Amino acid sequence: MSDDHDPKSHENLAHVNFIDPGKRPLSSMNPTIILKNGRLKSVLGASGGARIIPATTEVFLNHFVHGMTPFDEVIAPRFYVLEYENLKSVIQDTFKLPSEVRTSLKNRGQTLRGVNNAVICQFIVQDLESINGNQGVGKLTGVSDPRKVGSRAGY
């Protein structure tokens, strides 16, 4: 196998994932569009390799099942089967599973491993109740993950 197709070669993987017409990405993708009664309710996506799907699922569940706010659900520490985030962002925010949760999981026989790399989620939610009439856009709340210097690009 040549280096051009070696999935372990990060330099080559970055190059082959560049956007070009007709190309398919080589990493996990999970773009998620949620509709309610035919109207856009939210849009969710992430970057971060193999953890993209569980991270977007967790953000989705935090909002639609647990009722968290968009900001709280995106910045909440995420955990994966046996790995959990244990990292600081480039702006020194700390993301770590609380010690009582780690202790509880260990007491149940789980072997835990803190990881210092992150999945970056972006999330937009539309408040359907704020739409006037049958057309228009309701109040939008967008959150860009601070794990990757998240910031807004527009107002």
What does this structure look like?
The longest helix is centred in the middle third of the chain and has 13 residues, at 52-64. The model is unreliable at 1-13 (pLDDT under 50). The chain is an alpha+beta fold and 155 residues long. It has helices spanning 10-16, 52-64, 70-75, 99-107, and strands at residues 32-36, 39-47, 83-88, 94-96, 113-115, 120-127, 139-144.
Between the first and last Cα atoms, what is the distance in angstroms?
48 Å
Total number of helical segments?
4
**Strand neighbour order, sheet with most strands:** 1-2-6-7
Order of helices and strands: HEEHHEEHEEE
pLDDT < 50 runs, ≥5 residues? 1-13
Main beta sheet strand tally, sense and closure: 4 strands, antiparallel
**Rg (C-alpha, Å):** 18 Å
- Give average pLDDT, whole number: 76
Protein name: Gamma-glutamyltranspeptidase
Organism: Melia azedarach (Chinaberry tree)
